Structure formats: structure tokens, C-alpha cells
Amino acid sequence: MDQLADIPFAQQQRLRFIESSLLWEGEVQRQRVTEIFGVARNHISRDLKLYNRLYPGHLQYDLSTRSYRRGAKFKPALSSDDPEEYLSLLQTYAATHTVALIPALGKGPIPTGVLPQPSRTLDGHILRDVIGAIRRREGLKITYLSMSSDHPSTRTIWPHAFMNSGFDWIVRSYDDLRSEFRDFLLRRIDSVEPLQQASPMSATADAGWSELERVVVVPHCGLNPHQRSVTARDFGMRKDGKSFAWYADIRRCMLPYFFHHYRLDLDPAAPHAPRIQLRDRARLRQHFFKPLGE
Predict the structure, then answer these.
(1) pTM of the entire structure?
(2) Domain range for residue 130?
(3) One Pfam family, short name please (predicted)?
């Protein structure tokens, strides 16, 4: 990466695109790079020559298709070779059709279907104020909607982190009303008023956020050996003695969301229990709280 230190940022982006196309598509064409970045073909020719000089053997020209293909010595130097990164980009594009993602998807987005998500409105002004409060370590006076009350509540919070439950964005905050750190669904914050007040409690005092809990997830005890092996592969488990296990270190305040997301809070003996279960369920069941809003 130090080799790019003296290269203009725009050219660095084109070099990364060239490499990403080689990695996932197997080839890259000058015309495609020209269309994506809106620069002249001679600029792209210089980019390709530079990439070849920086990383000899990484690409070779195919006269029959007039494209550059992966060379025998190709190895990603500028981009991640994690398949999940590419698939996540496809998922995001399929869900949002964000044009800005197209350069990262080689020749263009591959046809991709995703499950529909509820159209949950997030106010950009509210998000900006929450981000600002976190950055400045200051408070917010908010109007908050709750399932437990017919009327919005007004409270003062000092947010210090975001959490994602797999379904919702949550603001981890010190709550003046309860005098403790609590979770607030971002989409339920109806209004905000920035306050130039420092938090009465440092974020470092939030043990639920700072303390990690070791969770061990294993295949369901009712599965046969083949089913356990397939389940282990599906969940990225590793061999653990005679079985398989997924070890996860999770912030304590996020445990209820983790258990709910993977349905680990269901009784393994229940008719529709998932294919996975907790190894130490008795110890962890104290965290089987329902997520916000239920």
C-alpha cells in the first residue's frame, strides 16, 4: 500500500477498481473503466501500465477479447479477497440501487434478488445530531416513542455508540431519566435538541458495552453427524473435540439481540427450534431479554 503514497487519490481508486475486476470477474476492459470513472482512454492505459509496473505478472493482455485478464502471479494487493465483501456490495446494491457502488462491482451488478425490508423512515437530521452528540460527547433532549406508553416521552440522553441488532440501528446512551445506560431505537427518536452539556457519566462506565461475554454456539443435539457437519459449515464453526463450535465474544448489552436474531433464546426442545443451540444455555439465559419494541 505504501507504493501508492505518491499517487493521486483518483488514480488510486481506478487502480483498486482494476484489481477488484481482475479478482472477481477475471478480466477488465479499458472501455469499462473509462465509462465508470469518466476519464479518457489514455488515462486508463497509463493506469494499466502503472499497475503492471507495480505488480508484475498480475495481469496479461488477451488480444482475442481486447481485455486484460488475471496473470499467473495475480494476488490481491489493493483490495480485499474476502468473498463476503463482494456479496455484501451486491446485496446493498440490490436493496438500494446506490449508483456509487457500481465501480466496486466490476462489469456491473450481477442480477441479485434480496428479501424486501420494511420501509422504515430515518430522519437524516436526527442521525446527524446523534452523530454530532457522540463526537462532541454532549447530550440530546429527545422525544421518544415506545410500545409501553401511548404518549411520547421526553428525556435527556448522552449517546456514545451505535449498535446493529441485525434488524435495527440502536443508540447506546446514558439515560438521565433512569440514571443508567440504555438502548434507544434510532427510528423511534421523533425529535432531537442538541444540548451543550457533558455527560454526567463517562462512556467508560458502561460495563454492558465494554465487557465481553464468551458465547459458544454448537449444532443442535438432535442433528445426525452429517447434519451437524453441514450446519457447522453454514455457521462457520470450527472443529471442537468430537463436535463443532462457533466461539463469539459479544458485548454484554448486545447479547439479547444476538440470541433473538439467531433464535437461540428458544427452547432446544421446541418443535421449531433452530439448527443451533447454546452450549452454556443455563448461564446465559439471564440475558434472554426480548429486543426493544416487543
Answers:
(1) 0.74
(2) 124-203
(3) WYL
